[in-house]
Amino acid sequence: MKILITGATGLVGQHLVTHLLSEGHEINFLTSRRKAIDSLPNCSGFYWDIEKQIIDTSCIDGVTKIIHLAGASVSKRWNTSYKKEIIESRVASSKLLYQTLKNYTHEVTQFICASAIGIYKHSYSTVYNEDSRVFSEGFLGEVVQKWEASASVFSDISVKVVKVRIGVVLTKKGGALQKMKQPITMGFGASLGSGKQYMSWIHIEDLVKFFSFLITKNKEGVFNAVAPNPVTNSELTKILAKKSKKPLLLPNIPKFILKLLLGEMHEIVCESQNVSSNKIKGFRFQYEKLDEALTDLL
Ligand SMILES: NC(=O)c1ccc[n+]([C@@H]2O[C@H](COP(=O)([O-])OP(=O)(O)OC[C@H]3O[C@@H](n4cnc5c(N)ncnc54)[C@H](OP(=O)(O)O)[C@@H]3O)[C@@H](O)[C@H]2O)c1
């Protein structure tokens, strides 16, 4: 199959490209940086400027599936203009892809849009499945709801829409694991806030196979991409410290300190989402438990 990927140069995208190439797929990708057009071996790069709504439309030639990952990082300091960029980079990019399919001849049958478990409202007790309509009222909740709405319109042009609510992605290099590991390896590890908040995570290898599964099974609808066993922040901190062979000496970092340090962004680390992966029948996770995932990654 020929697959068009946006955000292919990012953390998830690079792993996904490697995996899909290994399965024999052909990859086109869209990048917002001209100099990145030749950056991914064995793939064809195309330029787009989301703000100006410019796209090299030859990117869709022969393509039957689109995977839309592009979006400004949510883990950079939020201010009013950057918050706008976080939303626009996702919504305006979906719109540009939609207009392209609407106005040009194409063979695209499935649009798979990244989303995030940040859509679910903070709760220590609820286990969220894809049918839940209890959405977060925080900034991340707003981002994800607008992002998902921007994906829904593809069904108007007879393209199957899949929304993948991704949990915290664990990788060997970069991403959340690196950030969580750093203070622990330096001997300053501590649980965050109450420590009771659930973190629903997924190993990068399972995530890329998850995308591949959605493509080959031609799925449609909303799917949570999380491992079957979420952990609380305290459990995660303990497991990480054990794996890093470091003691945990400090008390929990109170939420008000996190608010002072991170501003509104503290919601990323303090909000709790216990998310179920039961819907995706037939998909086998290689890493079901955090301990197994970290043994592989650390
Ligand atoms: N990593 C996680 O734990 C996680 C969890 C839940 C959801 N997600 C979502 O999954 C997607 C992929 O995640 P990731 O970790 O791979 O993200 P990433 O490493 O930040 O990469 C995102 C890609 O989006 C493009 N991009 C960045 N800023 C942009 C902007 N202002 N306008 C247009 N394009 C822009 C970039 O590609 P070019 O520079 O080539 O254009 C970049 O490589 C993201 O949308 C993210 O929000 C990730």
Topology:
Blueprint: E1 2-6, H1 11-22, E2 26-31, E3 44-49, E4 54-55, E5 65-68, H2 80-103, E6 110-116, E7 127-128, H3 139-152, E8 160-166, E9 168-170, H4 175-185, E10 198-199, E11 201-203, H5 204-216, E12 221-225, E13 231-232, H6 233-243, H7 255-262, H8 267-270, E14 274-275, H9 290-297
NADP nicotinamide-adenine-dinucleotide phosphate is lined by residues 7, 9-13, 31-33, 36, 50, 69-74, 85, 89, 93, 114, 116, 166, 168-169, 175-176.
Q: What structural class should be given to the helix and strand makeup?
A: alpha/beta
Ligands present: NADP nicotinamide-adenine-dinucleotide phosphate
The CATH class of the domain at 2-170 and 200-227 is Alpha Beta
CATH architecture of the domain at 2-170 and 200-227: 3-Layer(aba) Sandwich
In CATH, what is the homologous superfamily of the domain at 2-170 and 200-227?
Answer: NAD(P)-binding Rossmann-like Domain
Q: How many β-strand runs?
A: 14
**CATH fold name of the domain at 2-170 and 200-227, please?**
Rossmann fold
Globular, elongated, flat, extended or rod-shaped: what is the shape? globular
Range of strand content: 15-25%
In whole angstroms, how far apart are the ends?
34 Å
The order of strands across the largest sheet is 4-3-2-1-5-6-8-12
CA-atom Rg in angstroms: 19 Å
Tell me, rounded to a whole number, the average pLDDT: 95
Q: What's the story with the biggest beta sheet?
A: 8 strands, mixed
Poorly predicted regions: none
> Which H/E pattern describes the elements?
EHEEEEHEEHEEHEEHEEHHHEH
Number of helices: 9
Approximately how much helix is present in the residues? 25-40%
